[in-house]
Predict the structure.
Amino acid sequence: MKYILMLFCFISFGQSKKQIDLYENYKKALGTYVSTAPSFIVITFRNLTDNTINEVCIEAPDLIFAVFDELKLKDYNDLAKAFEYAVRKKDRFFEFSNPKSIERLTNYNYAISELNDFIVEKNILKLSKKIYRQKKWKFYPENELEKIKYAHSLFKFGIITGHNNCTGGMTLFCTNWSNE
């Protein structure tokens, strides 16, 4: 009976375990919007100025400030309102018309087909399994685009990443198991 109820819940709400896990990772990563080393998130948004739909990988504060601008919030005390709005988006789908918001979300343009090629080329599935086993990971990307593609593809495989730039160079690291 317990299993039938669980199956009914999954069918009723239309969310797979993967979708639920991605949402939980999204929430955790989104919470780093006040950090000096924020995590990356993947969202989909409709640009209402040209009606295009884009899947993008951005840092958590970029989404919070895009929402802040879109909702025309005025006071930085309202960042919590922007956060609450963003965290309620379980499907991670947004609509933006504010040019400043759209600019925040479109720093790195690459086609999903390019990302899919990257996933195959870098064997991200194998890498994600290794990260899950070791519960840690650190990488020094060659450039910003490579950093974003790693963050984007790993997010899709359930890995949250953050980054920092210090004297040793740019570092991308896994944050799934921090603060647990």
Remarks:
- The longest helix spans residues 17-30.
